[in-house]
Amino acid sequence: MAEIKCIGILTSGGDAPGMNAAIRAVTRAAIYNGFSVKGIYRGYKGLLTNEIVDFKTQNVSNIIQAGGTILKTARCKEFQTPEGRQQAYANLKSHGIDALVVIGGDGSLTGARIFANEFNIPCIGLPGTIDNDLFGTDRTIGYDTALNTIMECVDKIRDTATSHERLFFIEVMGRDAGFLALNGAIATGSEAAIIPEISTEVDQLGQLIQNGFRKSKNSSIVLVAESPVTGGAMGLAERMRREFPEYDVRVSILGHLQRGGSPTAADRILASRMGAAAIDALMEDQRNVMIGIKNDQIVYVPFSKAIKNDKPIDRTLLETLRILSI
Ligand code: F6P
User: Fold this and answer.
1) Is 98 a catalytic residue?
2) Residue of minimum CA distance from atom 9 in ligand 1
C-alpha cells in the first residue's frame, strides 16, 4: 500500500449541520498525525475544476458551531462519467493528494466508491445527511439538528392549530426515508406520521383522524415524509378535504430550513468523533469504508453495505406514536 502523506477533504450533496465540525475534526486529526490536508471546494465539482487549497489548522478555526459547509457543496453530473472521474483523478494527483475523505449522503458515497475502485485511491466516507438513511450507522451527521428544528417548528404550528381547531399536515424532508417524520412526530406529540416505509398508514389515516376528533381532540397534527409513496402533505390534505369536508385543513411544508442552523451538541460530538475516526481508519489501512456509529461505538462500514442498502426503520416507534396519541 502506497504511503499516505496528503489527505483531501470535500463535502458533497445536500449540506447538513455538523459538516463543518466534521471538516474541522478531519483537518485537525490529520495534521496532529503528521499528514498535510487539502480542502476541495464544491464537492466533486471542485475536483474537476481544481478548486483545491492547502488547509492548515487555522482554516478550520471558529467553524464548529456554524451550519452549512465552509467547503461549499454541489451535486456533480460530470463526476458520474468516466471522463469526469479521470480528470478528477489527474487533478488530485497534481495536488499530491493520496487519500480522500468524503462527507455526504448516499449519492456522494456512491461516487467515492466508484472513484476508489477505478483509481485504487483510499477513500473514507463520513455520513453527512439530515435524512439518517445510511445503513450501518445509528445516526448521520445533521440528523439530530434537523430533528430539533422540526420539533421547534411543529411546536409553533401547534399553537395556531390548537387556537383555530385545525388539522395540519406538515411535510418534512427525508428523501425516501421516514426517520425525520416518525421521530419528529414522537418528539412533538403529533397524532400520526406518514412515512414511505409503511404505506398502510395512509389508508388508516382517515379513521385515525376521525377517532381523534370524535374523542378528545379539536386539532391534530400529522407529520408527512416527502415522498411519492406518501403523496406528500399537499396530496394527503387534498384527500382529507374531499373525504372529511367538515375539517379545517391546512398544510405547512418545512422545506430547506430543516437543513440550516447551528448543529446541536449531539451533532457536533458525532461529527468530531467521526472526523477523527476517518484519520484513524486511514492509519489502520482501512480502505473504502464509511465511518458509522453503533451503540455509541465507532464502526467501519464497507461502502458496499452503507450505500443503497435500505436502512430499516424501527416499526415499534410507530406503535409508540399510536399509543401515545390517543
Ligand atoms: O438529502 C438531503 C435532502 O435535504 C433531502 O431530505 C431532500 O429530499 C433533498 O436533500 C433536497 O435536495 P435539494 O436541496 O437539492 O433540493
Assistant:
1) no
2) 175
Query: 90 C-alpha vs ligand 1 centroid, how far in Å?
Result: 30
Q: What is the DSSP string of 22-37?
A: HHHHHHHHHHHTT-EE
- Does 143 contact ligand 1 (Cβ within 6 A)? no
14 within ligand 1 shell (Cβ under 6 A): yes
The residue nearest atom 7 of ligand 1, judged by CA position, is 175
pLDDT in tens, the chain (326 residues): 579 999 999 999 999 999 999 999 999 999 999 999 999 999 999 999 999 999 999 999 999 999 999 999 999 999 999 999 999 999 999 999 999 999 999 999 999 999 999 999 999 999 999 999 999 999 999 999 999 999 999 999 999 999 999 999 999 999 999 999 999 999 999 999 999 999 777 778 888 777 776 666 788 999 999 998 888 999 999 999 998 898 999 999 999 999 999 999 999 999 999 999 999 999 999 999 999 999 999 999 999 999 977 899 999 999 999 999 88
The pTM for the full model equals 0.96
53 CA to middle of ligand 1, Å? 27
Q: Which residues of 199-215 are buried (b: 16+ CB within 10 A; e: fewer)?
A: eebbeebeebbeebbee
Q: What is the DSSP string of 70-106?
A: TT-----SGGGSHHHHHHHHHHHHHTT--EEEEEE-H
- Choose, from 131, 133, 144, 267, the residue flagged as catalytic: 131
Distance 19 CA to ligand 1 centre (A): 15
Please give the Cα distance from 286 to 303 (Å, whole number): 12
Quote the DSSP letter at residue 247.
S
